[in-house]
Amino acid sequence: MDIAARLAQHRTLGSVPSAELAWLLSHGHLRHVEPGLFVSRKTELLETLVIVLSGHFSIYVDRGAGPRKVMEWGGGDVSGFLPYSRMTKPPGDAIVDEGADIFEIHREHFPEMIRECPTVTEALVHVMLDRARRFTSSDLQDEKMMSLGRLSAGLAHELNNPASAAARSARLLIDGLESLEAASRALGAARLSETQVAAIDSSSHSCRSAVPSALSPVELADREEAISTWLEDHRADPAAAAALVETELSIGDLDRLASVLDGDALNTTLKWMAADCSSRALATDIERAARRIHDLVAAVKRHTFMDRTDAPEPVDLTMSMNDSVALLLHKARRKSVGVTVNLEPTLPRVYAIGGDLNQVWTNLIDNALDAVGESGHVEIAADRHLDSVIVRVIDDGPGIPEAIRGQIFDQFFTTKAVGQGTGLGLNIVRELVRRNDGQIEVESRPGHTEFRVTLPVAADAAAVTK
Prior knowledge:
alpha+beta, Jelly Rolls, Heat Shock Protein 90, 3 domains, six-stranded antiparallel beta sheet, 13 helices, elongated
């Protein structure tokens, strides 16, 4: 079959007027590409429109985790450089999977093609828009996965601390319960009077309340020394001081206890109180660690919207931003970066896709943490302005050079080292903000870079003030 007949049967372009097909035939050339060879390479400029007559090839994009197929073409498709496209280089390498016959037209003929072949041009513009949507969808998914990967690394670290604390406290609690059991048996064998039991109940109540955390380490050391001295003066085991020091038990409480107990009865009672307080403190530590793990898992669940549909709904910005900050605090602590969150107390909800907004905050805060130096500062602020909410992510880093400020939202543009940035983050942020009817702006100078995201207030929240 000759090329003209094959073009006439092409799925995308075969239905255009015959005169336009004749123009294509007279301005292009046929090329056969064997399997394993390249149709185009990431490092090379796109120079030709590629009309696929037969065969199959795919484009593989590497976002830092190895090449991944993101799109493919077969007979009847169109690829390569397209009219009105702003793409100068492909995002990856296009490799032939099955020997392909392709008909190519050089971009130098495009002005004439646009003028002489309006139907072809219209079809190619639709192809370009569809390709852009598919690439954007793939980019968004890649960026989400990379973002989740970064969060997962931090989350593993954040979960490890309370998990380790819970395991350590549980081991100590097992030993502590044995000591408490032995002390309880000894106390039961002491045959105490009702007056003595009442005094123990009163003192143990103070023992079960934690000492105020406002005490400094020096004050705690002085308190432990005072309790230890009191125990020695009353011929009681001074080892109990370590368990009693972080409770509200005072020297006065001990004096009142000593007024009704003495000798072995007093020492047995103090050992029981120390074992009881120690066990309760360890149980509290386990509960606190478990609650921290629960809160982190809940933050991830809310952040990813794993149980929600990808549809707009009223979104609580306060929770959204606080979750994003919580999942990135490990990175801030690693660089000793201060993070301040200043949100208007009655911040209204916005109507948006919650997962989109979480992705926006994560990218902007993560970039801000990258931009600042050791002991730098990042501020996240939000307040209402008429029927909009303005969110600001501010850092005190060196700023964005004016020469590249206009490129930071461009696809694949990055100033980070190879392997550390994909150039997708801010481009995706802009797309997500636009998808939720918002706007994003940037202002930057040395010591102050501010990204401002403006989002419309949800209809029910807006109606409250009207």
